[in-house]
Write a structure and sequence with these properties.
Nucleotidyltransferase, domain 5, 3 domains, six-stranded antiparallel sheet, five-stranded antiparallel sheet, 18 strands
């Protein structure tokens, strides 16, 4: 929204945030070692305010900041409790809270300045100005739009693995590559493997093109073998060649979500479960994505895609409720793009009863949404199915095409 409205996004940091929290319940602490009152050794302190390390501290801080937003006439989003909105005579101010980090934007610069001044009077704050780094994510705001990436983090990963000078590759996984538990393979250092996969998981925050490969590797955390480590190094070599990549949200276009749902039938060789993939786009860039093993074994391609579409619909509803809170309402049913006609027909009518009667009732939640005109499944060509990149290793030409459709581009596109 900020990119399309050419709004500036600002950032504040609350100093010692948890110390602002006021406790609602009785909490006692022992006298600290070295500061024990002689003759009263068995007595304890009662806390009135929260301390760092106290399990009630995060909740106490949230209650404090929530009370402030209520006093300032902000509306809290019922679907995302860290999102607050204020409207005044057609002007809008949006505030997002992550513990002690606050980012805010809006269409009225004066409202942003007033909010900043009000916060600084209420709390001890650090004004970080226009958002540049947030939770390790680099943010570049320009005339083209808003670009997010993690290039510094990627360089640190490569340096840690001594791969900063390695040869780069153009795709993270070679098409046709299959991984399994590989009981006969050589065991590698599980601790280091977990560290690398965990680091790659964090890198997927701005790199949806890595999602499938990282999701695949995360299935073998317990006893990684040489084949799994080789696949991990392949992904790192791909990261080496795409360090400067991130997601670009351009300023043109409408704020409408385009949803893609896909699955790879029997993608897991060990338990024969399918892989679900979903991508949610707003015009030029992906805003949410997932690649996950399904919880049940599917008996057909139609069933696998039906289960994937049901999961996609749940996320879709949540995203649309957030957009409605921000004032963006859609009159029509939300469209989920799928490349399987049988799945689309099954979502509309209980056809193929003999083949679909075994599907768990919770997945038929999708059919209710379709009948209530909340969502609708629409056919899209397999070559235009963006979520395909979340379910399998595709050919290089197709991979680069889908990568661009996700909005993953080089930082040079921003200038």
């Amino acid at each position: 929204m900020a990119a399309q409205g050419t709004w500036k996004v600002f950032q504040l940091d609350v100093k010692s945030a948890f110390l602002h929290g006021e406790l609602q319940e009785e909490v006692f602490v022992q006298q600290p070692e070295g500061f024990i009152k002689m003759g009263r050794e068995n007595q304890v302190y009662r806390l009135k305010k929260a301390l760092y390390g106290l399990k009630q501290a995060p909740r106490a801080w949230y209650s404090k900041i929530k009370a402030y937003f209520a006093k300032e006439h902000f509306d809290r989003c019922s679907s995302e409790h860290t999102l607050f909105l204020k409207r005044v005579h057609g002007n809008i101010l949006i505030v997002s809270l992550y513990v002690d980090d606050i980012i805010f934007t809006g269409n009225n610069p004066q409202m942003c300045e007033d909010f900043k001044s009000s916060m600084q009077l209420e709390f001890d704050m650090t004004d970080l100005g226009r958002m540049r780094y947030f939770l390790g994510i680099e943010v570049i705001q320009s005339d083209v739009g808003i670009f997010i990436c993690q290039r510094r983090y990627a360089r640190e990963m490569l340096a840690w693995l001594n791969m900063i000078e390695c040869n780069s590759v153009r795709n993270p996984i070679v098409p046709g590559t299959t991984l399994s538990k590989d009981n006969e393979g050589t065991i590698v250092d599980a601790t280091k493997f977990k560290q690398v996969v965990g680091s790659l998981m964090y890198l997927t925050v701005t790199r949806p093109d890595l999602m499938f490969g990282v999701s695949l590797l995360s299935r073998y955390m317990a006893t990684p073998k040489a084949s799994h480590w080789a696949a991990t190094k392949r992904i790192m070599r791909y990261v080496k060649g795409t360090i400067e990549y991130g997601i670009l949200y351009q300023k043109e276009g409408k704020t409408e979500i385009t949803d893609y749902s896909e699955s790879n039938y029997v993608g897991d060789l060990d338990d024969r479960r399918s892989t679900s993939g979903a991508v949610f786009m707003i015009r030029s860039g992906a805003i949410s994505w997932a690649s996950k093993n399904q919880s049940v074994v599917s008996l057909s391609t139609t069933e696998a895609k039906y289960i994937a579409a049901a999961a996609c619909a749940c996320q879709c509803i949540w995203l649309h409720r957030i957009l409605e809170h921000l004032g963006i309402k859609s009159k029509d049913a939300t469209t989920i793009l799928c490349d399987n006609n049988s799945t689309i027909q099954l979502s509309k009518n209980p056809i193929f009863h003999g083949r679909s009667k075994h599907i768990a009732v919770r997945f038929h939640f999708l059919r209710d949404l379709v009948n209530d005109h909340v969502v609708q499944l629409q056919y899209c060509n397999t070559h235009e199915q963006v979520a395909d990149i979340m379910t399998k290793a595709v050919k290089l030409e197709q991979f680069e095409k889908l990568q661009l459709m996700l909005g993953v581009v080089d930082v040079t596109r921003v200038s």
